[in-house]
Amino acid sequence: MTESISLRQWNRTLLTRQHLTQRVDEDAIEVIDRCVGLQSQDPQAAFFGLASRIEDFDPAELDGLLENRDVVRIALQRGTVFLMDALDARWMRASLTPMMISGARHHARRLVGVSVPEVAAAGAEIVGGAQAPVTAAELRAALAERWPGEPAEAMAAVVRASTPLVQTPPRGLWRRSGGPAFVLLDEWIGAGEPAVTGDDAVRELIRLYLRGFGPSTVAAVQTWSGLRGLRPVMEAMEADWELYRLLGPGGEKLYDLEGLRPADGSAAVPVRLVAPFDNVLFTAADRVRIADPEVYARTVTPNGQSPGFVLVDGRLAGTWKIVDRRVELTELVDLQPRERRECEIEARRLDGLGL
After folding, report:
1. Whether 10 contacts 244, CB under 8 Å
2. Which is it for strands 81-85 and 71-75: parallel, antiparallel or unpaired?
């Protein structure tokens, strides 16, 4: 008989695996690995993501990892910029490139006299042959010089989808930024072969997601990764005793790694302020385990930007943003005075980072 889990168990399991029930005293790169990277199109978001998970997190630690090239900011899942362990980024980027090229097909259709492989090769040559990181404007200009009649923005989008480009510091450093400037991944971290490829890489992505976010539906893994057609892969992994199946609170078919068990649903959890775009909330599938749909809908902005999220008793209860270098809280549900005080304590903790 298939094991069932309650909504609270599902919620507590996610929070536990994401280090949001208790901050850990661990290196930032280990937490980044367990979270399978941190979504990072907001260059400061990763710092807030780590501050919600690591005891006494120091932003200088992440700055050091970026400057030493141990972690990189690179387009990965769904073609979105992630902060990722550099060696994991190599094999993940290789396995996700076909998906990213497919996602850029509306740009490719705008090309008239040049093919996608030609543009991709030219982009790699332009970035790889430069003496300094290449800005987005410089990439567009160089491509337009080669093919004056083609749309430069579409060609640049094809290059970004086809080619593993790292966004180099100072973009992404604490309280420092600048426009994106690109270097080839292999030039930035050193040449090497992906640690895992092909079908093995797809299975490894599934394992990593379940370790950090499980138990999950097939749809959740696909939404997070941007890949499609994963149901037969996960069913085969179940047949191989790598995965087992559970029944979610709404009848969802959930998968998890053998050897991992759901958390105690009765466990109390603290208030947490999690980062903008944090994948515990931002990817849509399975969001019900942490947010009521009508509450989450109030966080969606017309320009696609994400606020920070406030979790109370493990569920979305408010948002936060930085105003005049201080955290400003907005309630989305009615909070008790004690809960409001706990939110304010967490806000002051973020203030203490030196916003």
Report:
1. no
2. antiparallel
pTM over 0.70: yes
Which helix (H) or strand (E) is 75 found in, with range? strand 71-75
**Digit-coded pLDDT (tens) for 294-318:** 999 999 988 888 999 999 999 999 9
Q: Which residues contact 239 (CB under 8 A, 6 or more apart)?
A: none
What is the chain's length? 355
Strand order in the sheet with 181-184: 38-39, 81-85, 71-75, 165-167, 181-184, 134-135
Q: Are 147 and 155 in contact (CB under 8 A)?
A: yes
CA distance 72 to 67: 9
Residue 279 burial (10 A CB sphere; 0-12, 13-18, 19+): buried
CA 114/CA 108 separation, integer angstroms: 9
pLDDT tens digits, 101-134: 999 999 999 999 999 999 999 999 999 989 999 9
